[in-house]
# Entry
Amino acid sequence: MKGRNIIAASALGALVAAGCGSSGGGTTAGGGSKACKASIGIEAPITGPVAVLGQEQLHFAQLALSLDNKQNKTKITLVQGDTQLDPKQATTATQQLTSNANVLAVVGPAGSQEVEAVGPLFARATMAFISGSATNVTLTQGKYPTFFRVVSNDHVQGMNDANYIVNNLHPKAVMIVDDQEVYSTGLVGFMTPILKAAGITVDHESVSQKLTDFSSLVAKVTPATSVVILPWQVAANAQQFGRNLAQQHKKAVIFGTDGLFSPDAFKIPGSYVSAFGPDITAIPADASLVTAAKKYGSFGTFGPPIFAATHVIDEAIASVCKAGQTPSRSNVLAAIKKTNESTSILGQPISFDSHGDNAHGKFFLFKINSAGKYELIPG
# Structure
């Protein structure tokens, strides 16, 4: 993902007024004589500590938009909001997007802590926002009525991961380390009871995302601790943790989640990573999309869910135009609620329950082999 360029198709200077066009030629998504025009936003950590993931998300949003515009004969443009995975930055980006009357819906943000910060702002603006990676359970318990996600939540992931560790890795003791963010502490809360119920000794530690040397934490890994669980968002931190383990000649296996799925940044052999998205290179139906996405470089599991989220919004806008209406935040929100896709880039259907959760979401588990390659574990 290094050295990627942002394609011109979504340049900020290409903004056009929302609505189904008030002049000129072109065709609507429904075959009319006026263009179906709108703008959507994306909130992603485009720069900062996890920019490699944010760039991947941005590129997949751009790819979905370009394909959907061509297919639906729409003219939807993308407005970028860089959050740096920081709730304060996300708040600033959201204020900018919601104050832009042309922006009808938003893809993102990436982190659960960011959704908590911006949810009320989107609700007041009656603006839908769809995340491809925010998984904390509380996000869909009614506080943020315009929030949706195309991936599953932490309850599903925490339960599946903990049970896999119990039934397949058989540890006597584990260390589980949160990074003091909502996403991480939520997963710890779901996993710990299952581990303890299985008779496993659990050492729960907590560190800041800003910590970059884990020597003192690794020193606490006992000889009986055969698994260290890292539900983190910064893959480079997990890589450093693995280095510190090796430096202290400790053999514990790292079991990470979501943010650790970064083949360029986290490549400790023997480690496990669970992810909300599949490896689309292994889905035959996605072959053409994989080819198209390769122009940006390598990618992992963070981009495809953003493609799916962008596609949902694009289709909602197109459906409003097909109905002969001018797209607005309220009618696009209503159309998103009615989403019912029989398949998607994720290899599974997408429809939302009354809380905004994808009724068909699931998680995927990978193991890193001796060559640093992520291999899907069937399940």
